[in-house]
């Protein structure tokens, strides 16, 4: 047992050394601290480091860093994952639980979670849950591995995934139970044989983090599968226009919607846009005969767009949804045209409140992206790389993503979220998630009450 004594002695020596260092360091730290405080208290401001504290009270560290990037490169800054600005959201709404006035739903009552998008379409999109995967572009944004994981995970959860603005990925169609294809302002993914494979078509007019702006990506940055599927040569540029080709007048939108509806045999055809001039935009969309409208709020994320578009354009999702629901109700179209909301919704509470305010479904982007990477992101990339390197098309470690594990985590995230929503429905005395409405809500401040048209606490 001599080794135990040796180990105990070594441990005691380490403790004595640490204690000695603490005793010796204490006076040194005190001296250095006092000198630093004295310098800050006596130096005039032009020479005083405290000036940095004053500066950050006027200009946030985020703006300071981004302005430094502008000064360094002289080119447009592109920020990932959306705006850091605090905007109105669903968190200042609260549910009013049933107790005596209304009774909670019996515990043995099944809670219906199904939703239908485009109920008047010849082939409505029927989903088991009111949560779906938002459009994330293969090549322009995320990797093939992640697209397949999202497709598999959405199928496991009984919902749909969205192809996004990138090229059509055959593997995504193979593994998705329900696939939404975007008809974008780019040249690719417009072939009739591709469009016929969609369970729903989303005409991409704009989105939360980029509005309706053009973008260009040199094909060299897309080398590999994405460049091939886009039909680009190495010296080409992948370009998304600011306007939809062929649309010059308001009446042209109806021609496009009718053509897509006929081509696809009657699947729901709708439009995706950032909330801006909500009522005027919806007037044109309704006149065009859409089956659904997707509103992507100003808080939406993206791989990278200029801060001005993320911070200074569009309305938050909660405002856009409230105005859109009001408009459709006023026009008596709420039962005919479905509403999908996205941008800045992350929790089951957010999702449930969106349904209460008139959404038929919630489209999730960043939330399912990070669910897919889950512990793989922390275990395989940190501390030297951010977890996004595991999921981006140009990520250094995209090959390391375990697709089946990612798919399972996506399904678990969606299923867990719906389980919470079902429990919330019981507390509200409902038997269907779609029966939750604004009468179940109250607001914590007058601004949110005005936005949502609900009473204030």
From TrEMBL:
Residues 120-373 form the Glutamate synthase domain. GO terms for molecular function: glutamate synthase activity. SUPFAM superfamilies: FMN-linked oxidoreductases (SSF51395). It comes from the Bacteria. GO terms for biological process: glutamate biosynthetic process. PANTHER family: ARCHAEAL-TYPE GLUTAMATE SYNTHASE [NADPH]. Belongs to the glutamate synthase family. This is Glutamate synthase conserved region-containing protein. It comes from Kroppenstedtia eburnea.
């Amino acid at each position: 047992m001599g080794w135990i004594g040796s180990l105990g002695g070594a441990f005691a020596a380490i403790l004595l050394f640490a204690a000695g260092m603490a005793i010796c360091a204490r006076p040194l730290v005190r001296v250095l601290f006092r000198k630093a405080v004295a310098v800050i208290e006596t130096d005039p401001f032009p020479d005083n480091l405290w000036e940095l504290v004053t500066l950050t009270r006027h200009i946030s560290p985020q703006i300071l860093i981004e302005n430094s990037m502008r000064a360094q490169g002289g080119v447009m800054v592109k920020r990932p994952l959306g705006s850091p600005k605090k905007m109105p959201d669903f968190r200042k709404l609260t549910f009013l639980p049933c107790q005596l006035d209304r009774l909670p739903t019996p515990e043995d009552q099944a809670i219906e979670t199904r939703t239908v998008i485009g109920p008047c379409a010849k082939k409505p999109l029927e989903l088991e849950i009111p949560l779906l995967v938002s459009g994330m572009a293969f090549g322009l944004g995320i990797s093939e591995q992640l697209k397949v994981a999202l497709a598999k995970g959405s199928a496991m959860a009984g919902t749909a995934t969205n192809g996004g603005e990138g090229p059509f990925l055959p593997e995504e169609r193979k593994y998705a139970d329900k696939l939404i294809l975007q008809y974008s302002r780019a040249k690719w993914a417009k072939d009739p044989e591709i469009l016929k494979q969609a369970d729903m078509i989303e005409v991409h007019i704009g989105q939360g983090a980029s509005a309706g702006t053009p973008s260009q990506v040199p094909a060299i940055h897309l080398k590999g599968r994405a460049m091939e599927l886009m039909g680009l040569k190495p010296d080409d540029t992948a370009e998304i226009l600011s306007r939809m080709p062929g649309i010059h007048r308001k009446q042209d939108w109806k021609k496009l919607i009718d053509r897509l509806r006929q081509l696809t045999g009657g699947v729901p055809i709708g439009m995706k846009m950032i909330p801006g001039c909500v009522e005027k935009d919806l007037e044109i969309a309704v006149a065009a005969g859409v089956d659904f409208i997707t509103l992507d709020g100003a808080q939406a994320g993206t791989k990278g767009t200029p801060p001005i578009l993320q911070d200074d354009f569009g309305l938050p999702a909660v405002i856009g949804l409230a105005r859109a629901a009001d408009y459709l109700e006023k026009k008596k179209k709420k039962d005919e045209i479905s509403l999908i909301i996205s941008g800045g919704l992350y929790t089951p509470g957010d999702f449930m409140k969106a349904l209460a305010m008139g959404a038929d479904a919630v489209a999730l982007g960043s939330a399912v992206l990070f669910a897919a990477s889950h512990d793989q992101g922390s275990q395989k990339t940190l501390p030297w790389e951010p977890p996004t390197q595991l999921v981006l098309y140009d990520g250094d470690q995209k090959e390391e993503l375990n697709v089946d594990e990612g798919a399972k985590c996506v399904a678990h995230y969606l299923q867990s979220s719906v389980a919470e929503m079902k429990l919330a429905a019981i507390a509200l005395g409902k038997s269907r998630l779609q029966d939750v409405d604004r009468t179940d809500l109250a607001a914590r401040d007058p601004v949110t009450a005005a936005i949502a048209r609900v009473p204030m606490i």
